[in-house]
Amino acid sequence: MSQPLPFDALCDLAREAGQATLTWWNKPLEVMAKTDDSPVTAADLAAHRLITEGLNALTPDIPVLSEEDADVPLETRLSWQRFWLVDPLDGTKEFISGTDEFTVNIALIENGQVTLGVVGIPARDEMYWGGRGLGAWQRQGSGEPRSVGVRRAADPLVVVGSRRHSTPDQQALLDRIGARRRVETMSVGSSLKFCQIAAGEADLYPRFGPTSQWDTAAAQAVVEGAGGRVIGLSGERFAYPTRDTWLNPYFIALGELDDATLAVVLDQPAASSGT
């Protein structure tokens, strides 16, 4: 299997960080609140330290930006042509509630675009990695990697969404699609939703609610490596521009949709925005 050099080391790093989080999983733990009132735990911070130290050792010339240390001045970030974008524990609420749907996300951003990413699922000892034009892979434990790819939209169309953040806009889209074809919905936490599209287990993930750049970048790389797309509401490739907010605009992740369904998906109200 031919892959760029960073993937093996990145997967090892994501797995190590993920294993560290399991020290606190399904156990009583203190939950702290960040300035935006989102939760953070010792598991988030331990994974953050492992990943940032590991990336600094692996690629000392590439800056690291982690959710748990995101107060880098805009002026500094504007000078970065490339940087690592990390969510050390995506799905902290899932982690706290004891489900296995939390992930470790590591992505490389170059000139405002994600080029490669690794998503670890610690509680399942599972890993996804890939990048646009590079392919995408999945590995269970220490087993052999297998190539993954999106599927042609199934009947019913499988739409995956957040366990905690459904919105009227998303329901309206489901209603429009449902008027034309059968739809099955699944609720899943964290960036695992993207991985299901990459693995051909789901067809569509519309997100018309708040997310941050570190929530999506690594998994977008996996979806794109698998032959899928992550797009904005005008159909453009989803990007990661340097600006004074980490919030994403609304987006849609998709596999291989037929033209009629894609037209319905892209027929969104012009005012919809995530920022």
Uncertain parts: none
Q: Spell out the CATH superfamily of the largest domain.
A: Fructose-1,6-Bisphosphatase, subunit A, domain 1
Counting DSSP H or I runs of 4 or more residues, the number of helices is: 8
> What's the overall average pLDDT, rounded?
91
Helicity, in percent? 25-40%
Total strands: 14
The CA-CA distance between the termini, in Å, is: 40 Å
Strand content: 25-35%
CATH class of the largest domain: Alpha Beta
Q: What is the global morphology?
A: globular
Q: What's the CATH topology label of the largest domain? A: Fructose-1,6-Bisphosphatase, Chain A, domain 1
SSE string: HEEHEHEHEEEEEEHEHEHEEH
Radius of gyration of CA atoms, rounded to a whole number: 18 Å
Q: Describe the largest sheet.
A: 7 strands, mixed
Write down the domain tally: 2
* CATH architecture term of the largest domain: 2-Layer Sandwich
Classification by helices and strands: alpha+beta
